[in-house]
Amino acid sequence: MQHGDPPGAPPTGQAVKVLGDLVAGLFLVVVAWAGRASVRAGQAQLQFDFDTDPGPYLVPEVLLLVVGAGGIVLVAAGAWRLARSARVLTPSVRWPENALRLLLVAAFVASMALYLRLLVAVGFRPATFALCTVWVFILARQAQQRPLLRDVAASLVIAAVVTGAVHFVFKSLVRVPLP
Q1: pLDDT tens track for 88-130
Q2: Which residues of the chain carry a pLDDT beneath 50?
């Protein structure tokens, strides 16, 4: 039984921590691996000799290494907790509730992969607007438990503001070329 669990309750708190650590850690490792592959592909396309200067790829490389290291630490923490307690993943865990959360995480990861394809196909603004609209609506629906017309309207407005703000920052202030 966990510290926060009521007397006689199944030990769900520990199982949720273990599952959260493992899923979040694996997600961060995959993101870091995919990001490093993307950075390496960008370096190969650029084919510019920076001499002794590390070039524009140093900061992304360092950040992705930190993200990957954090993911490895989370996976190790989850594995350590799992090894310490054999009863962590017993059937007492409420799997349907946790399964929905895991499905949302998987859907988000899949939507990010689709977003990368949309960036190339239709450009930054339509792809970003579509991604923001869908995810703001999904998150609003999770909070309200039913889709309302105002959720759709709020999703459209928030997506337009986020898309415009990100476009302004990257295109005008930072001067990053966007697809």
Answers
A1: 445 555 555 666 777 787 888 889 889 988 988 999 999 999 9
A2: 1-2, 5, 8-10, 88-89
Q: Are 138 and 104 in contact (CB under 8 A)?
A: yes
Q: Which two tokens stand for residue 71?
A: 């993911």
Q: Is the whole-model pTM more than 0.90?
A: no
Q: What one-letter code names the amino acid at 116? A: L
CA 40 to each of CA 35, 46, 60, 69: distance values in angstroms, whole numbers, following the listed order: 9, 10, 10, 18
27 vs 42, 69, 84, 176, 179, CA distance in Å? 22, 12, 23, 27, 26
DSSP class per residue in 91-135: TTS-HHHHHHHHHHHHHHHHHHHHHHHHHHHH-HHHHHHHHHHHH
Beta strands in the chain (DSSP E): none
- Answer whether 125's CB lies under 8 Å from 167's CB: yes
User: How many Å is the Cα radius of gyration of the chain?
Assistant: 21
